[in-house]
Amino acid sequence: MAGRLEGRVAIITGGASGIGRACAETFAREGADIVIGDLDEVRVDEVLRAVAAMGRKAAFVRTDTSQEADCEALAEYAEREFGRIDALVAAAGISHALYVSGAPVAGDAPETPPTILTKPTEYWEKVLNVNLTGVMMTDRAVARRMIAAGRAGSIVNIASVAAKVPLAGAAEYCVSKAGVHMLTKVLAMEIGHTGVRVNAIGPGFIETPMTANMRADESRSQLLLSRIPSGRFGQAQEIANTALFLASDESSYFTGEILFPSGGLFVS
């Protein structure tokens, strides 16, 4: 039986780990060839091998999504080397300005000032540059090529429950993800007539490298779990399954939407 993405090409930013990796492997299982844009040149090898083992093509383009030239180069590579772009998952992101994916668990950067009043402006700017401007530039680079090729496609932006739930001490993260939510809606409205759909996912607290420090703090972890009706953290695979739905023809009448796989967090 053919997969839901058989014969398609998907770009995944942040595809070397966490939600991005789960999306890359899930899309490959469903028949897609994968182009990963990431800064992690070590962990991405594992993902490329996993995709290749499924009989799909896989490639890596070192990409800093806060740099417009990198976003353009990623989309250009995918179109040139794979011949088409059918889907994008914009999953690259950081939780705070000092975040380094894969770094040892040592607390959530305790040297970082905790509030808007005391954080350096450059911390705010860095998070928004990656989480919001980077998503916009990636979306734009891909959408331009989809439209120029006359090809319908699906763009999936990874936002967060923080798009709607304020988290003290994480203003820049919350604002960046709220921005992704609105970016998704505006872009969907602007290009809906082209056949390119734009949707977003707002994950709750998911077990990924980004949340490792938080989950390692027992008291903080238990406090968060007490606020999640399902009583557990989510899995990256559950977010990848949502992305698969949005990238596939099953969601053909979805655009400008944000889905929140959060274990019921909003009803607590």
Structural features, described:
The structure is a single chain. With about 270 residues, this protein is α/β, with parallel strands linked by helices. The chain has a single domain, classed as NAD(P)-binding Rossmann-like Domain (Rossmann fold). The protein has helices spanning about 20-30, 45-55, 70-80, 120-150, 170-190, 210-215, 220-225, 235-245; strands at about 10-15, 35-40, 60, 85-90, 155-160, 195-200, 205, 235, 260. It has a seven-stranded parallel β-sheet with strand order 3-2-1-4-5-6-9, sandwiched between helices. A two-stranded parallel ribbon has the order 7-8. Helix 4 (about 120-150) links the parallel strand 4 and strand 5 (about 155-160). Helix 1 crosses helix 8 (about 235-245). The chain starts with 8 loop residues before the first strand and ends in a 9-residue tail after the last strand. Mean pLDDT is about 90; it is low at about 105-110.
